[in-house]
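Continuing the batch. This is chain 6 of the set; chains 1 through 5 are on the previous pages. Same settings as before, nothing changed between runs. Recording input and output for traceability.
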Amino acid sequence: MDKNTILGFVLIILILVGFSVLNRPSQEQLAAQRAQDSIAAIQKTAQEQAVIAAKTEAKAATDSLIAKHDTASVNATFGPFAPAGTGKEQLFTIENKVIKITLSNKGGRIYSVQLKNYQTHDSLPVILFDKDESSFGFTLATNNNRVLNTQNLYFEPIGLSSKQTVTTSLQSYTFRLKADNGSYLDFVYTLAPDDYMVRFDMKGKGMETVLSPSTDRLELSWNAKIRQQEKGRKFEARYSGLYYKYVADNVNNLKQSGHDEQNLPNQLQWVAFKDQFFSSVLVADKAFTSNTLESSFDESTSSKYISECKTKMNVGFDPKSTTPTSFRFYFVPNKFNLLAKYDKGIDSDKKMKLTKLVPLGWGIFGWINQYAIIPMFNFFGGFIGSFGIIILLMTIVIKMILFPMTYKSYMSSAKMRVLKPQIDEINAKIPAEKAMDRQKATMDLYRKVGVSPMSGCLPMLLQLPILIAMFNFFPASIELRHQSFLWAKDLSSYDAVITWNATIPFITTYFGNHISLFCLLMTIVSFIYTKINMQTQMATSQQMPGMNIIMYFTPIMMWFWFNDYASGLSYYYFLSTLITIAQTYAIRSFIDEDKLLKQLEANKKKPSKKKSGGFMERLEKMQREQAQRQKAATNRKK
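Output for chain 6:
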């Protein structure tokens, strides 16, 4: 970077800020926008009420058929499923220690799901979906050309009461869809005493006489709206969406913003509607085919929904019911150890890899989290109740492990610092026009004293994967959810100490309407650390004009980036930087720079030990080639 590049960056920043200020809406425009939002909200409410009214009217018309004993109309509408064409919706509750599920006889579907051991940010029960927020049904083509959906038909509960609790063993609950001539289709739900998994089996009797003769697959439609469960809506939306896994392959997801739709002919093992910390997953025992997946994110900040997910998938079905069509629902918290448990004892090609719902990062970053950070986190969590203390201990352990790299980096910086007077002499003897000669002389000095310019950079680069791994770890850790420490009430969300409601151009969009204290402390400590680094760099090399502005600008950008992030992450970076500063001063107090310079001078008297193919040799070769090219270019100009 030269002076012009730095000036360009500064101008770009000023243009962005100026553009934001100049284009901010006036009070009249804000009032008009609020009015438009109000009108849109009223129109949306009116549309929803119209849909509800239409459904109510349709249901009333259908119910009137029974009231009038108009069996001909019922038969014409529902064909062989006329016995299930009309009825009254009934709800049944089944639950165990961790989950509470409401089933409806209309559609034989799961009507509502509550995770019993969790609450929302405002202390309400965590409900994944309820009532009309979800739909689930199979399309049935009858042998007399009727096309029906199970979600519009009434099932008969078999042996179900209004509320049942599973305490000791597996229990099954059956809803029966009756057809003509004694044929029927059963939906069977099986719940274990202490599990988030619900098994769902579809099997019937005599369906080959009711359905179209060509029926060997059924189209399944499963839709749901994802509720906002956490305090930070924007932050929660980054970790929400529709995920899916190919059979014997990787996990992917649709775009996590706006609208996205994909048609996937490949076989899918499962699809999931995922929130930041909770997921609804549907797994097919024999895979989904001809899949259409769609997600739409709700941009309205006043909506109680993050997004809406829709799926249409085909599944194999045997009308003769020789074998049932089986699925598994997982209504789970996104907890790594819990999700990993579901793959124990399963062949590698059949593993579900539900742990991919916990975004630990790709490649090496995910490996660091999976095999180092999570085991250490669980170890400390086994005997320490405060998660703030756990993060502190984790930070100390990580910094101790990285200390040899930190020490090596500082020693490299110290060597460069004590050699600076000699480098200044080289620069004074060789004019600036001969930059290649300057570099060659400097490299010769480094080689003689046994110093590598890269020895200080590599240790810092090796620490980078851990920093990125921790960046992924904290927002994905449900263990930190609603855990308080000092002033932070929830380490998985921002710790606002100052909030406001007014819309401030640029600030509200990129910073938010609050100030997170841990993030502010992290910024202050980063400023201090930057100042220390700047002093070291100025003592070891020529500082480019304006570079200090760029260096000091970085902590400000971090303040903007991290103000909405989990306070646990800002707390970790604050501690990590604070310990690094302490290590820097501790190392500095133990190093005698006069003695270090004498050691480097003594190295000059030792015979040179070049290693073939070493970094310094390659660097010198590149310099010689560059000098030759530069000389040739000069000769051509002459």
